């Protein structure tokens, strides 16, 4: 079985060189050591020094020289928008205060579907749109923490 001990960051390599792909949701892409089943049916051992999020477009360098592209599988997400930049910034503060993963853009915040957080955001005046696509949240100050740490809820 091949091993992967190195990951090429998305954008730093030509994805056309990919031999196959590894597809997974957010939690399936946050790993340190496990056997990954690739799209072509083969398996490889992911063996990293520390847990990390494999981002959409990253390249897994295998011991046999092949490079495997990481694909973020679509999952249930929620886009949060607001009536103004100030209002969106306040919503971003509340999302961050709940320690959940978020994709931050100039006009929206995207989080994983979470009824508790969605109710809080609606109560604060946020506008929600349910979407289905890959989730690649921002790296936090504690980037090596597990996804489980991003899903606990404080009382609203």
UniProtKB/TrEMBL annotation:
Which stretches make up the UreE urease accessory N-terminal domain? Answer: 3-68
State the compartments where it is located.
Answer: Cytoplasm
One Pfam family linked to the record: UreE_C
Q: Which UniProt keywords apply?
A: Chaperone, Cytoplasm, Nickel
Q: Which Gene3D superfamilies match?
A: Urease metallochaperone UreE, N-terminal domain (2.60.260.20), UreE, C-terminal domain (3.30.70.790)
Superkingdom is: Bacteria
Matching entries from InterPro entries are given as: UreE, UreE_C_dom, UreE_N, UreE_N_sf
| Record function comment | Involved in urease metallocenter assembly. Binds nickel. Probably functions as a nickel donor during metallocenter assembly.
Q: Which family does it belong to?
A: Belongs to the UreE family.
Q: What is this protein called?
A: Urease accessory protein UreE
Task: Please report the organism this UniProt entry assigns to the protein.
Answer: Candidatus Kirkpatrickella diaphorinae
Annotated gene = ureE
